[in-house]
Amino acid sequence: MTESPDRTPLPRSFFDRPVLDAAPQLLGRTLVRRTGSGPIHLRITEVEAYAGESDPGSHAFRGRTARNEVMFGPPGHAYVYFTYGMWHCLNVVCGPEGHASGVLLRAGEIRQGVELARGRRLSARHDRELAKGPARLATALDVDRSLDGADFCAGPDAALSLLRGTAARPDQVRNGPRTGVGGEGAFHPWRFWIDGDPTVSPYRAHVPRRRSA
Asked: CA–CA distance from 147 to each of 34, 115, 166, 200, 201 (Å)?
């Protein structure tokens, strides 16, 4: 039996190109998270691009560290980071090896394994909120630092994979400033989303933290 085209994995060459080319092309694709309780399928509806050492908003702007090591590796791998002492976020490494660019998966629609996602996102009032935002997405998909470095191209039994899905049409794609990014990278229009999709997260400008006296 031949698998339908939308169920075939994205090849590594898809990720091995400039991050601003790859990021909008991820919209509409299917992210599969395989857990011990079963698979969860998510249609990607919102992403943000980060261009490594040349991008003040990127974790790699100041160079290689133990935290961002995966970003400098081969394309098509997961970069998972822990933020605010509470949440994980899932990224896809793009571009040539040695150039630390990646795409943050910001939001999506859970299409299979909804009950599994609900069990991890008890505060969600509606299914459209299950993965509406990067921390919610990672929580719904049971993603943590143990998946840092996971290969999206490792095969049908891998913990994470990306399938072709149905790519968003160019006329459906919008872009604007990245959420919560300050400084010189604040106005890069490198957030991409599917226009009108209810799972897309609201834009929030960067709010500088105030140090206590």
From this structure: 11, 22, 25, 24, 24
The amino acid at residue 129 is: E
* Other C-beta atoms lying within 10 Å of the C-beta of residue 210: 6
Query: What are the DSSP E strand ranges found in the chain?
Result: 30-35, 38-50, 78-83, 87-94, 101-112, 160-163, 173-176, 191-194
pLDDT for position 62: 87
62: phi > 0 → left, psi -120 to 50 → alpha, else beta; which? Answer: alpha
Q: What is the pTM of this model?
A: 0.93
On the CB side of 49, CA atoms within 13 Å amount to 25
Percent of the residues in the chain that have a pLDDT greater than 70, as a whole number: 95
- Residues 132 and 108: their CA atoms lie apart, in Å, by 6
CA atoms of 199 and 114, how far apart (whole Å):
14
